[in-house]
């Protein structure tokens, strides 16, 4: 948007609550902590992860940060942790156990516990960008991981999760095997051992925290909702299964859900993918989930899109990563949805203002 700074309330957010803040101050009004250099007047992009236990949120964050760094590099921008705390937390909780030790991550502790490192968001400096064809601004991306445990049974003091209401986008990950209809359909074909509650129950809890109906009534913006089938490698492996119906669906090489184009999530790809996943969920009989999204989110003006992704690219071997390494699939898409609409990281130089709906 081509507006002077003072006419753009809400661009600069408090990274701890995601709420709009006075764009001239250097301290977080909620946490009373010093904000990273360059914060005043910046655009703060706020993204929160959601999903049941073991739905893949933390591994997603681990891989997303690496891929975003690569993307920034390709655009001649250095993406860097905006403060010491982000640098340390990413290294200790994500990077070292996963990329260095080639192991999986521990379950994220509930917010009430002393070890709940996710209370401090990960804040990245994405450098300066021309926002929607207008002026140059410093852009920060704030990522909040959450403990699935806290969304499976909401904490007594739900206000600790209020940041979800203010997020620009909530990425709701669900393990395909945690949709009861899908699990029944795939029984015997894919191993269904894993923790975590039913995907629709957790989505209901999330929407109880976001309260899209109340936000609409108050005239407040609603977060976008990216509904993403995680661990998609499990479903893709069905291309070689004895189940003919599944082998045919997943074996369709031309399907958007089977390919990752370069540039990612651009052109007609978002629309195709969205429609394919919606119909796949219908085919999988995940009607309760789809109906919940329609009746509890879309009806209140939440912008919803469907995604698939795999952080690992293949099944882990016990508590270790596959020795052949990881091959992430469509991990960036939900974040690109948001960034592209602000004019950030466009793969082309066409006029930024021509693109889609604005969320700023
Ligand atoms: N096959 C496959 N398994 C995955 C993938 N991502 C995660 N997993 C499995 O899911 C488990 C849980 O992943 P996490 O990222 O720790 O899950 P989480 O959602 O952060 O869980 P909580 O912290 O308990 O809320 C991992 O240990 C893996 O076994 C994936 O891309 N493919
Ligand atoms: Mg976790």
UniProtKB/TrEMBL annotation:
<feature type="region of interest" description="Disordered">
    <location>
        <begin position="1"/>
        <end position="33"/>
    </location>
</feature>
<dbReference type="Pfam" id="PF19993">
    <property type="entry name" value="DO-GTPase2"/>
</dbReference>
<protein>
    <recommendedName>
        <fullName>Double-GTPase 2 domain-containing protein</fullName>
    </recommendedName>
</protein>
<dbReference type="InterPro" id="IPR045528">
    <property type="entry name" value="DO-GTPase2"/>
</dbReference>
<feature type="domain" description="Double-GTPase 2">
    <location>
        <begin position="47"/>
        <end position="257"/>
    </location>
</feature>
């Amino acid at each position: 948007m081509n507006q002077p700074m003072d006419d753009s309330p809400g661009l600069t957010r408090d990274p701890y609550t995601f709420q709009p803040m006075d764009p001239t101050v250097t301290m977080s009004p909620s946490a009373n902590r010093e904000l990273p250099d360059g914060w005043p007047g910046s655009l703060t992009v706020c993204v929160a992860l959601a999903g049941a236990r073991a739905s893949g949120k933390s591994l997603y964050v681990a891989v997303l940060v690496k891929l975003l760094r690569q993307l920034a590099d390709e655009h001649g921008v250095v993406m860097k942790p905006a403060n010491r705390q982000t640098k340390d937390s990413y290294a200790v909780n994500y990077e070292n156990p996963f990329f260095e030790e080639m192991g999986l991550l521990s379950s994220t502790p509930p917010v009430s516990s002393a070890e709940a490192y996710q209370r401090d968001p990960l804040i990245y400096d994405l450098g300066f960008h021309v926002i929607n064809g207008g002026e140059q601004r410093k852009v920060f991306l704030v990522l909040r991981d959450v403990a699935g445990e806290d969304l499976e049974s909401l904490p007594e003091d739900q206000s600790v999760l209020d940041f979800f209401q203010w997020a620009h986008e909530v990425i709701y990950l669900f393990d395909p095997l945690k949709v009861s209809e899908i699990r029944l359909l795939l029984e015997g074909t894919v191993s269904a051992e894993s923790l975590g509650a039913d995907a629709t129950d957790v989505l209901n809890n999330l929407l109880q925290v976001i309260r899209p109906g109340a936000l609409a009534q108050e005239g407040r913006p609603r977060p976008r909702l990216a509904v993403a089938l995680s661990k998609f490698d499990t479903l893709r492996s069905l291309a070689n299964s004895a189940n003919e119906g599944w082998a045919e669906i997943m074996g369709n090489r031309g399907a958007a859900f089977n390919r990752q184009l370069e540039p990612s999530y651009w052109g007609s790809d978002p629309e195709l993918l969205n429609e394919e996943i919606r119909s796949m969920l219908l085919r999988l009989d995940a009607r309760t989930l789809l109906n919940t999204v329609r009746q509890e989110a879309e009806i209140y003006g939440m912008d919803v899109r469907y995604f698939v992704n795999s952080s690992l690219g293949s099944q882990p071997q016990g508590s270790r990563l596959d020795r052949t390494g990881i091959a992430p699939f469509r991990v960036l898409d939900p974040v690109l949805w948001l960034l592209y609409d602000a004019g950030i990281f466009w793969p082309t130089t066409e006029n930024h203002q021509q693109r889609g709906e604005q969320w700023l």
